[in-house]
Amino acid sequence: MSKYPHLPLLLGMTTLLTVIVLAAFDANAGDQEGTSMKTIEGSVLYRERMLLPEDAEVRVSLEDVARADALADIIATTTFRPKGAPPFAFSLEFDPLRLRDQGRYALRARIEAAGRLLFTSTEHIPAFKDGHEPVKIMVSRVGDTRAGKVIWHPCQTPASPIPTGSSAKWRAGPPQWRAAGTAPGP
């Protein structure tokens, strides 16, 4: 009989504990390698001479648009409140491990305020171009209709018709600038 009867059990438990700790260390090291995030930088702009409402949000997303018969898979998204006039700079971080070899990647931008879409990108913007220049995403104004009536926007000419109901009225004079999504002045 041995002087230390529990020694084999202690050695076995110590070995098992060492294996578990090393496995956990390797798993964490693999996670750290996988989290080497990449960044796409660029700007969102529009041509209209107008300011956005204070509650406006710009959303830029990286999408896999390879499948024509399905919705795009969103890889990463960033949302921010723009300050001042366009262009609005953005920085979009994404995990490169989420990219597929068969994927076709594009950037999409939207500007919303009070739950309404004001601007959206309408062209395919490749996410990964040759070179490292910042990406420029041009967004287009979305038509604003409420209850079937066209709402006047400041980008119309000074003598543009303002359709209301079945008859059109004309407004003469200089355009009255206002934030997108707000009611026209008197």
Q: What's the layout of helices and strands?
A:
Elements: H1 7-34, E1 38-45, E2 57-64, E3 73-80, E4 88-94, E5 105-113, E6 116-121, E7 125-126, E8 135-141, E9 145-146, E10 149-150, E11 161-164, E12 167-170
Parallel strand pairs: 1-8
Antiparallel strand pairs: 1-4, 2-3, 2-5, 5-6, 5-7, 6-8, 9-10, 11-12
Characterization of this structure:
The structure is a single chain. The protein has 186 residues and is of the alpha+beta class. The chain has 1 helix and 12 strands, in the order αββββββββββββ. Strands 1, 2, 3, 4, 5, 6, 7 and 8 form an 8-stranded mixed β-sheet that branches. A two-stranded antiparallel sheet has the order 9-10. The chain has a two-stranded antiparallel sheet with strand order 11-12. The termini are far apart. The chain has one helix at 7-34; strands at 38-45, 57-64, 73-80, 88-94, 105-113, 116-121, 125-126, 135-141, 145-146, 149-150, 161-164, 167-170.
